[in-house]
Amino acid sequence: MNSFIDEAELKRILWRSRRGLLELDLQLERFVSEALPGLSAAELEDYRRLLLLPDQDFLEYLNGKAPCPDESLRPIIARIQALQS
Amino acid sequence: MTVPVRKFDAVIVGAGGAGLRAALQLSEAGLKTAVLSKVFPTRSHTVAAQGGVSASLGNSEPDHWHWHMYDTVKGSDWLGDQDAIEFMCREAPNVVVELEHFGMPFDRNADGTIYQRPFGGHMSNFGEKPVRRACAAADRTGHAMLHALYQRNVRANTQFFVEWMALDLVRDEQGNVQGVVAMEMETSDIYVFQAKATLFATGGAGRIFASSTNAFINTGDGLGMAARAGIPLEDMEFWQFHPTGVAGAGVLITEGVRGEGGILRNSNGERFMERYAPNAKDLASRDVVSRAMVTEINEGRGCGPNKDHVLLDITHLDPEVIKSKLPGIREISIKFAGVDPIKAPIPVVPTCHYQMGGIPTNYKGEVVVNDQIVSGFYAAGEVACASVHGANRLGTNSLLDLLVFGKSSGNSMIDFIKHAPKDLPVLNTADVERSVARVDELNQRSSGVEVNDARLAMQATMQKHCGVFRFKDMLKEGAEKILEVEKQVANIVIADKSKTFNTARLEALELQNLIEVAKATMISAEARTESRGAHVRDDAEDTPERPNGRDDQNWLKHTLWHREGNQLKYKPVTMKPLTVDTIALKTRSY
């Protein structure tokens, strides 16, 4: 468990990883269970910002169909992608 | 025990297309309207709808609502109510143009009118030839619809309660609906949302099946709440399936893969479609392929440790062809099956997509039980059964359903609220106490069945015994098994009893809703001994009197499943439209 964040906040992030699209649910489910506990404070903040994206845009970036216009989010997207292959 | 009460004119549960459309109607009429949603509104499952919304605008070629109505009745295999279908098809052009005025970025023709494209089952002149009727916003129609409706609701001062889960319906002693009990996820605090009128727009429950295209949030919360409150569920045996979803994930593999030479194989490596369709083989129609896949699995020739799927093989294709013609499929397979289809076959299984049944309503969105309107209660969208989809839904009619019945429910609620006494009645606390007790029981139980285990047991039972193609004996066994699973669900335990965003508790509450839908589906399906639309059985024979196994003499009727004692009752299909002649029974063939 990350020491800089309380359990309640982690669980909020867990819930917000539930989306309107199955493809996002599946990819984020894996990411939060495998990678979330090991994220740095900065990465966690990036992930939180990522969760604010509209679902269809989020999926396009994850699928590599389009680059995320916010370059600062690209590393966290890459981390999610790295778990999938 | 005192549960705090919040008071509104109208409360809406669910913020997808139907809930947002209804809320807009109410808020713009100046009524105090609350919308509760488990997730942020624009992340509702409506966001996944890509195909479009149908309306006989006739922008590219002549079209007529009556032709749309004919296609919808035929698609429903004559189980749809013709008054509701006429209403929906007549209203379609109005609600689509309205949505355009709300800022929906529809694709356009050069002359500025909404561009319309052809879609399976859309025909002109009563089934004569294809017609362009589907309106879309690129491949993001549902997404664009949610955003347009949400923005408009913000402007109209709709009060959103985001990350709230409704728990139970509140009814008075006469059965009139008074509102809902709901939990704030942030704190686990429970409130009553009391209102003159209550609408359920909670979407479908596709997660009852092991393989589903539905997002994780589609847990049939409205159906579970209705069932616990004594409202029957209508036509729950009818679910739309797609033949090839990635096993264990549910993400669809387009049928184009078989068009490019993909071959279905069983655990012996056999190309089994040769036995079922010697000529068309893997290119046989959707029904034939689904039936063959399920038969192989059922007879023990499924693949994997649980023998619960078959394989879609494209390893014999030139890798360059796969990379150039099927890049999306390769990516899906690698991502969701962990398999590169250039090297190994893709595990696939028939996958649930859409729920035709639901809470029984009329075309005004009013909930109707035993021919009586349930005062103060409304339902719209996938959770409701108006019934416009009957035994099978016509493509693009789901988004239309949201708009038409979201709006008509909103109008019915406005009318009802205006005629209701100014002050809200005394709240009946019995239902509130029952709901709080249900949560308390979960909090207090210290040993029992893990939520995940019970959910997986339910999903496997539904998939195996009540999937895309159904066997008499399997259904009988399935009905017994699902009641066993119900006992497990009654005994679920959560280790985490904390208050803030307790996702374990939320998932337990969702499972308590899903199991109601699973029982309704299995028990309704076992009883209906014909094949109609999406409900297809091995023992319903194709005879001249009963073409495709459809038995109009005995089964041209709606099922009503009651939770109490799992009783089934039936009601006639409304064959009489509002203004035109009945679309007479015919064999459904395309």
From TrEMBL, chain A:
<dbReference type="GO" id="GO:0005737">
    <property type="term" value="C:cytoplasm"/>
</dbReference>
<dbReference type="InterPro" id="IPR005631">
    <property type="entry name" value="SDH"/>
</dbReference>
<dbReference type="Pfam" id="PF03937">
    <property type="entry name" value="Sdh5"/>
</dbReference>
<dbReference type="GO" id="GO:0006105">
    <property type="term" value="P:succinate metabolic process"/>
</dbReference>
<keyword id="KW-0963">Cytoplasm</keyword>
<keyword id="KW-0143">Chaperone</keyword>
<dbReference type="InterPro" id="IPR050531">
    <property type="entry name" value="SdhE_FAD_assembly_factor"/>
</dbReference>
<dbReference type="InterPro" id="IPR036714">
    <property type="entry name" value="SDH_sf"/>
</dbReference>
<protein>
    <recommendedName>
        <fullName>FAD assembly factor SdhE</fullName>
    </recommendedName>
</protein>
<comment type="similarity">
    <text>Belongs to the SdhE FAD assembly factor family.</text>
</comment>
TrEMBL record, chain B:
<feature type="binding site">
    <location>
        <begin position="14"/>
        <end position="19"/>
    </location>
    <ligand>
        <name>FAD</name>
    </ligand>
</feature>
<keyword id="KW-0249">Electron transport</keyword>
<keyword id="KW-0472">Membrane</keyword>
<dbReference type="GO" id="GO:0022900">
    <property type="term" value="P:electron transport chain"/>
</dbReference>
<feature type="binding site">
    <location>
        <position position="393"/>
    </location>
    <ligand>
        <name>substrate</name>
    </ligand>
</feature>
<dbReference type="Pfam" id="PF02910">
    <property type="entry name" value="Succ_DH_flav_C"/>
</dbReference>
<dbReference type="InterPro" id="IPR027477">
    <property type="entry name" value="Succ_DH/fumarate_Rdtase_cat_sf"/>
</dbReference>
<keyword id="KW-0285">Flavoprotein</keyword>
<feature type="binding site">
    <location>
        <position position="254"/>
    </location>
    <ligand>
        <name>substrate</name>
    </ligand>
</feature>
<dbReference type="InterPro" id="IPR037099">
    <property type="entry name" value="Fum_R/Succ_DH_flav-like_C_sf"/>
</dbReference>
<dbReference type="GO" id="GO:0006099">
    <property type="term" value="P:tricarboxylic acid cycle"/>
</dbReference>
<feature type="binding site">
    <location>
        <begin position="37"/>
        <end position="52"/>
    </location>
    <ligand>
        <name>FAD</name>
    </ligand>
</feature>
<dbReference type="InterPro" id="IPR030664">
    <property type="entry name" value="SdhA/FrdA/AprA"/>
</dbReference>
<dbReference type="InterPro" id="IPR015939">
    <property type="entry name" value="Fum_Rdtase/Succ_DH_flav-like_C"/>
</dbReference>
<feature type="domain" description="FAD-dependent oxidoreductase 2 FAD-binding">
    <location>
        <begin position="9"/>
        <end position="399"/>
    </location>
</feature>
<feature type="region of interest" description="Disordered">
    <location>
        <begin position="528"/>
        <end position="554"/>
    </location>
</feature>
<dbReference type="InterPro" id="IPR014006">
    <property type="entry name" value="Succ_Dhase_FrdA_Gneg"/>
</dbReference>
<dbReference type="GO" id="GO:0050660">
    <property type="term" value="F:flavin adenine dinucleotide binding"/>
</dbReference>
<dbReference type="GO" id="GO:0005886">
    <property type="term" value="C:plasma membrane"/>
</dbReference>
<comment type="pathway">
    <text>Carbohydrate metabolism; tricarboxylic acid cycle; fumarate from succinate (bacterial route): step 1/1.</text>
</comment>
<feature type="binding site">
    <location>
        <begin position="398"/>
        <end position="399"/>
    </location>
    <ligand>
        <name>FAD</name>
    </ligand>
</feature>
<dbReference type="InterPro" id="IPR003953">
    <property type="entry name" value="FAD-dep_OxRdtase_2_FAD-bd"/>
</dbReference>
